[in-house]
Amino acid sequence: MWVELICGLVLFCLLMLYLFDDGDHLDLDTSHSNALFAVANRLEQLYYGSKVYVGLQIPDADSGSRQNIDMVLVTKGEALVISVMNISGFVSIDKNGNWVCTAGLSNKTKCLPDPTVETKRLVPILEAYLEQRGVVLPEGYLSGKVICPNPNFSAVDSDVFPPEVITYDQWTQLKPEQRSMLSGWIKGAFRSAKKEMQESLNEKLCSTLSTAPMWDRLELKGNKYILGEFMEFKGKQDDLQALINIRRSKVSRLIVQKISMFGFARSTLQVLYSPHDYRNEGAASSEWKEAMVRSSTEVVFQPNNSTKVRKYKLSSVISMSLSA
Ligand SMILES: *[C@@H]1O[C@H](CO)[C@@H](O)[C@H](O)[C@H]1NC(C)=O
Ligand SMILES: *[C@@H]1O[C@H](CO)[C@@H](O)[C@H](O)[C@H]1NC(C)=O
Ligand SMILES: *[C@@H]1O[C@H](CO)[C@@H](O)[C@H](O)[C@H]1NC(C)=O
Ligand SMILES: *[C@@H]1O[C@H](CO)[C@@H](O)[C@H](O)[C@H]1NC(C)=O
Ligand SMILES: *[C@@H]1O[C@H](CO)[C@@H](O)[C@H](O)[C@H]1NC(C)=O
């Protein structure tokens, strides 16, 4: 009797493991990327008609490397390079400009280099990249901001923060209808410029940023976002055959829908085929197509801040966007 019971228990555990093993992503810290997308969504809601580009990797000719930009916000008359500091605790600034964070029961203190310095450093790098792609911005059009969206962020003295920093209190106070609050950091200096000129600049800026190098993104169930690089699909041969065309050069977005047919779990993938080639603009036409594969098919993904490659079953994926 005991033998049966133990065997039953072991089988049950194996079954549970099988059912709930959605790859090994549980230990991955996604709080930074989740914060990025939470901030990006709120900004797009606050500034009607604005566009946010998350997770850019801008080539820097001087250093010969790519520079991470958390996000760029493009509004009607201005663009901002935004760094998100999802830090919590009591934050003050020391005499060298470093941020001193005190958090936790033990009042552990952490010292961070002034994030406004890094953000301001990225502005001319992005300007140079845009210029190289034919988008010349008026001086001062692009500037940098640091947003602290963590509800547990507490400024010891809010007066010490430079105007480039949006503390949590200021972040919560931003309201769409509050034009005066906006102009605090959306300067409005370019409002007087010719409307058509502004619109065409805006359009050019957006189309250039949308084809700039950025991290691929994976949106998982439970409001989780991962930035990194899509590697490949893993699964049964016939499924892989159906997915063979899903490659960076052809596909920009993939949305997963689940269906269950006769007890066999399948996922319908809605795939946006959209040529990324920005050199022949206009010629690019995009179209949605569908593919149906087993939900156990896996997406192999390399998160940008992890050394380990991760696998995610389609059953846990909501969408994936591939960079140009
Ligand atoms: C910020 O980080 C905390 C943990 O440090 C995390 O719980 C939270 O989801 C993150 N995102 C936001 C928007 O605060
Ligand atoms: C990953 O990308 C985010 C968003 O651009 C960036 O803040 C972060 O520094 C990157 N991490 C690494 C290790 O490159
Ligand atoms: C931790 O620091 C805060 C703010 O400076 C203070 O109010 C609190 O009493 C400190 N707690 C401990 C255990 O030292
Ligand atoms: C804020 O602090 C509270 C209490 O320490 C904690 O329960 C909560 O998870 C924290 N929130 C974030 C977003 O870090
Ligand atoms: C990934 O990012 C989070 C949040 O920024 C950080 O706490 C963690 O140490 C990073 N991991 C690696 C491997 O860089």
Automatic annotation (TrEMBL):
InterPro entries on file: NERD
**Signal sequence annotation:** 1-23
Q: Which UniProt keywords apply?
A: Signal
According to its UniProt record, what is one Pfam family this protein matches? NERD
**NERD domain sequence ranges:** 31-149
Keyword match Cytoplasm: no
Under which name does UniProt file this protein? NERD domain-containing protein
Which organism is the protein's source? Fraxinus pennsylvanica
**Source taxonomy lineage?**
Eukaryota, Viridiplantae, Streptophyta, Embryophyta, Tracheophyta
